[in-house]
Amino acid sequence: VKIKYIIKLAQPIFFSKTAVIAVIYSLIFNLVFVLSFNFYLRAFGESVNFFYILFVLVLVQIAGILPISLNSIGISEGLGVFLYGLAGVSAETALAVMLVARVMLLL
């Protein structure tokens, strides 16, 4: 009974026009983020599956919110190097891609 009441209260928030627009912008931002990693990898001569890049970036972002280091410096790059290495990307290329992506994000 309480769950139905909570859902009824939250329904205007989750299905409001503002929430829908925010979700659409979030999806567009993340799609562009994944495509940019795809372009960075291709610029370094590597070809990785789009969905694997998406998988790696989700894990890197989750690891990035852990309060281990300042702005997840080193954590994101290390995990990216490890996970891209599992896809056959060399460690040097993976590190270069992760660093280029961090610089581009800061610009």
Quick take:
The protein has five helices and no strands.
Polypeptide structure, described:
The chain is mainly alpha-helical and 107 residues long. The protein is 78% helix and 0% strand. The chain is built from five helices and no strands. The longest helix has 27 residues. It is elongated. It starts with a helix and ends with a helix.
Which value, in Å, is the CA radius of gyration?
Answer: 18 Å
The chain-level structural class is mainly alpha
Estimated helix fraction: over 70%
The helix/strand order is HHHHH
* Rounded average pLDDT: 89
Number of strands: 0
Based on CA inertia axes, which overall geometry fits? elongated
Number of helical segments? 5
Distance between the termini: 50 Å
Uncertain stretches? none
Tell me the major beta sheet: none
Oligomer: single chain
What percentage of the residues does DSSP assign to strands (E)?
A: under 5%
Features:
single chain; 107 residues; mainly alpha; 5 helices; elongated
Write the layout of secondary structure elements.
Elements: H1 2-14, H2 17-43, H3 50-64, H4 75-86, H5 91-106
Helix pairs in contact: 2-3, 2-5, 3-4, 4-5
